[in-house]
Write a sequence for this structure.
């Protein structure tokens, strides 16, 4: 390549970098800035030439929920050590402070800079997500308003069908009773769906609050099982329960613990045929509490297993059998468990049954302020 | 036929006519005397004028919110002793806490509660007051 050709190549690369809409900062192994593009300069109110050679800590200061992050907590180190691309999304509430003091929310990707297979630094690609935040806010407000508006007519259907079903305004024949009962039940499902949608929107936005108090897990499980008694009795299910007496109360948000038990236990009951078995165990295991829910139900087809925690997904075999179900339950449970720094997994054989496992740290959940709690 | 004695006078502050009819009729069937208010302004005025035995209070209402009505009732010496049960479709902890801090004795979420339960709560609260 001639010198002129090299120069042209160089100019072309510079043009690409300076025309990018995203901010780009590249650092070397000493964590010194080797390159900053124009967009990064504008976002950070720093001249790219000035930043070059400076320690990255001087150039980029990160905040989460308004609190400055220690450099070691940043994914930059992680990306370099693990040789992995790390993405920090909109919901992680990370902000960057510009030189003029303006704090703006960012989404970013951090990639190790690989040169002949060796890590020689990192590339930080970021953008200002102020506008995305505003859109999310508007979306959240809309969902919350729409759900609230839906609840008023749903309450009316609920109350009028309760009155008719209770024969408070005159006797019903058996068919009428059955039909009004169907109306009443369908309406209850609609209320639950609206509540689930509200919860999902809060999870998607990362705006849900965690408010921990000392929670007796066995008590929460028992409350949920009491609610499920009619279905358990109807199906003649054999219910087994084992609560570890050594399990202390755990600092957790009771609503979140309830979401876990409610969804997993009602799934086990719903997706197990007549005279089947459902077994619940809650026990202390090392530094965790382990919740295990076994059923001898329909099981999850192998092909559907990887998608089972996906929002709105329902396995093929149960869609035919059970009309009820929204595909939101397991998605919610997984989000809740992960927000509580726990783990969820399962073992399942189609036609034999499913076992769900959840572990949560005994140290409990950390308080998280958010606009909304889950219900 | 001699008219049965009323179990108590309930002010039902609810702006949705369907809900107001359903619950109003239910309370009447159960033996209560029902006074209805269809907005917040009316609710605050009728609380002062009628001095009911108990108030069932919606939160999102035109002209004055339930929170405003509750604040007013609890500030006014002649009404501050009237028990208030909030009956709303707002179900957030922050709403519940706010209502209780303002002096509501109970908080029920309309879409999650049967009228039967509302009646039980009203009866329990009135019985508790009668004992005092």
């Amino acid at each position: 390549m001639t010198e002129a050709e090299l120069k042209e190549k160089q100019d072309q690369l510079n043009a690409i970098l300076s025309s990018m809409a995203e901010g780009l900062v590249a650092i070397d192994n000493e964590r010194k800035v080797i390159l900053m593009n124009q967009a990064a300069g504008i976002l950070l109110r720093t001249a790219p030439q000035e930043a070059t050679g400076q320690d990255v800590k001087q150039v980029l200061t990160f905040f989460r929920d308004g609190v400055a992050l220690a450099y070691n907590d940043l994914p930059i180190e992680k990306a370099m050590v693990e040789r992995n691309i790390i993405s920090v999304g909109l919901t992680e509430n990370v902000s960057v402070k510009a030189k003029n003091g303006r704090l703006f929310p960012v989404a970013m990707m951090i990639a190790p800079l690989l040169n002949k297979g060796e890590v020689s630094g990192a590339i930080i690609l970021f953008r200002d997500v102020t506008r995305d935040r505003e859109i999310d806010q508007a979306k959240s407000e809309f969902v919350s308003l729409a759900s609230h508006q839906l609840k008023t007519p749903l309450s009316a259907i609920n109350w009028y069908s309760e009155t008719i079903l209770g024969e408070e305004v005159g006797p019903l024949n058996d068919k009428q009773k059955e039909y009004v009962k169907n109306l009443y039940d369908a309406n209850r499902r609609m209320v639950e769906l609206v509540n689930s949608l509200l919860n999902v929107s809060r999870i998607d936005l990362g705006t849900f609050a965690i408010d921990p108090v000392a929670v007796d897990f066995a008590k929460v499980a028992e409350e949920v099982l009491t609610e499920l008694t009619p279905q358990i009795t109807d199906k003649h299910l054999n219910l087994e329960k084992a609560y570890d007496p050594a399990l202390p109360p755990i600092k957790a948000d009771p609503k979140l613990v309830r979401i876990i038990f409610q969804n997993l236990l009602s799934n086990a009951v719903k997706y197990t045929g007549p005279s089947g078995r459902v077994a619940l165990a809650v026990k202390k295991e090392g530094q965790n509490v382990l919740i295990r829910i076994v059923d001898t139900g329909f099981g999850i087809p192998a092909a559907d297993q990887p998608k089972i925690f996906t929002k709105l997904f329902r396995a093929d075999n149960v869609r035919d059998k059970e009309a009820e179900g929204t595909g939101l339950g397991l998605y919610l449970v997984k989000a809740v468990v992960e927000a509580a720094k726990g783990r969820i997994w399962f073992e399942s054989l189609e036609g034999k049954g499913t076992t769900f496992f959840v572990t949560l740290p005994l140290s409990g959940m950390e308080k998280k302020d958010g606009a909304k709690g889950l219900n | 036929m001699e008219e049965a004695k009323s179990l108590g006078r309930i002010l039902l502050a609810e702006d949705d006519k369907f809900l107001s009819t359903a619950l109003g009729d239910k309370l009447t069937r159960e033996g209560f005397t029902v006074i209805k208010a269809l907005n917040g302004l009316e609710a605050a005025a009728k609380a002062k004028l009628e001095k009911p035995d108990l108030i069932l209070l919606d939160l999102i209402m035109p002209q004055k919110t339930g929170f405003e009505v509750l604040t007013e009732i609890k500030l006014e010496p002649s009404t501050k002793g009237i028990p208030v049960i909030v009956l709303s479709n707002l179900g957030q902890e922050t709403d519940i806490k706010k209502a209780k801090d303002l002096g509501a004795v109970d908080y029920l979420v309309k879409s999650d509660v049967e009228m039967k339960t509302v009646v039980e709560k009203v009866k329990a609260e009135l019985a508790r007051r009668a004992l005092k």
Remarks:
- Chain A is about 45% helix and 25% strand.
